Amino acid sequence: MSITRIALLPLLACIAAVGPAQAGARIEVVFDDPAASWAAYYGDIQRVTVAAGNAWVDSFQSIASGVDLTVKIGFQGIATATGRSAVASWIGTGSDGIPLYQQGAAHKLVTGIDGNGAAADIEVNLGIAGYLQGELWFDPLPAMRLGPVPQDRTDAMSVLLHEWGHALGFNGWRDGITGELPGHYQSTFDALVRPQALPVGSALVFDGGQARSLYGQALPLTWGSYGHLGNAVAGADLLPDLMNGVAFQRGTRYSISALDLQVMMDLGLPMLAAVPEPGTAALGLAGVGLLLLLGRRGRFRASGAEPAARRLHAPAGRPGGSVR
Ligand SMILES: [Zn+2]
Fold it and tell me: How far is CA 22 from CA 5, 44, 122, 157, 293, in A?
């Protein structure tokens, strides 16, 4: 797949910058920053947001012709970052008879059907309690990812790839502990989540057939934040994954993994079977094992990207407000 480079455009508050992605997809970034307080970061944020989106778009076998996705970047006094689709789109009924909703951004990307008109498709919030200012490192060439990530910084490209992962699939409405649905609706991710008995109590797992075939069993989900993979105890081998819910190491790049793609396929999305860019190859299971052999777990530093306490934000757009 081709590497897409974008031309940075002058940015003003709430003025869009557009970068082309593959196959006619366009990724647009707008800023919800009325006083332009964070304008100094717009260029960096736009660059990594578009590159992260392109990486995901390039992981699809096919997308709707001429489709565009708009990402709205907000700034909040939080310690890390959040991301989600703005709406969820009804796609049918699950085998359990419960209505099924796909993340709106993924639905739009594949079908071209926009669930919320001119409004942004994806909402990302970046923490301004020091995270944006002192923690994130913005790769000058995020599509290529060549230079070393500073050892004292979290790679913003990795963070945006992670938030795109939520916006496209890793999200739902279940209670993060009990797994209970709040009502008679579920996301495509929810539909494959179930409790699994442990020696004491139970934990939530993702039990999609594609993911299971690669991992060998249902995927352990992060305790209390189940739109993520892995835990420090159960599922520690998943902690190097882009979509882990425990922490990002500083000085480290995370990429879309083969396992992430299998999860997306389980959600009904037409993903490529393998990660498209060798240079940005993800931590597949072999990579996970290698990292463990290298003892990276012992140096695992909580950088604040995804502390265990950070709960997955439920997607906006409850079923009643969604568009088919
Ligand atoms: Zn997350």
Answer: 11, 21, 18, 18, 37
- Ligand 1 centre to CA of 227 (Å) is 7
Spacing, Cα 181 to ligand 1 middle (Å)? 19
Taking the CA atoms of 125, 131, 132 and 135 in sequence, report the sign of the dihedral they define: negative
Q: Where are the beta strands (DSSP E) in 53-148?
A: 68-76, 81-85, 88-93, 99-103, 122-127, 136-137
Ligand 1 centre and the CA of 273: distance in Å? 23
Measured CA to CA, the distance from residue 82 to residue 223 in angstroms comes to 17
The pTM score is 0.81
Determine the distance separating the centroid of ligand 1 and the alpha carbon of 162, expressed in angstroms: 6
Could you tell me the distance, in angstroms and rounded to a whole number, from the CA of residue 313 to the centre of ligand 1?
A: 8
Rounded CA separation 203/153 (Å): 32
Rg (C-alpha) for the chain, rounded Å, is 18
- Token output for 243: 């979509």
Per-residue pLDDT of the chain (324 residues; tens, 9 = 90+): 333 333 333 333 333 444 444 455 899 999 999 999 999 999 999 999 999 999 999 999 999 999 999 999 999 999 999 999 999 999 999 999 999 999 999 999 999 999 999 999 999 999 999 999 999 999 999 999 999 999 999 999 999 999 999 999 999 999 999 999 999 999 999 999 999 988 777 899 999 999 999 999 999 999 999 999 999 888 999 999 999 999 999 999 999 999 999 999 999 999 998 766 544 333 333 333 333 332 222 222 333 333 322 333 333 434 332 222
Distances (CA, A) of 202 to 195, 221, 223, 280, 307: 6, 11, 10, 35, 21
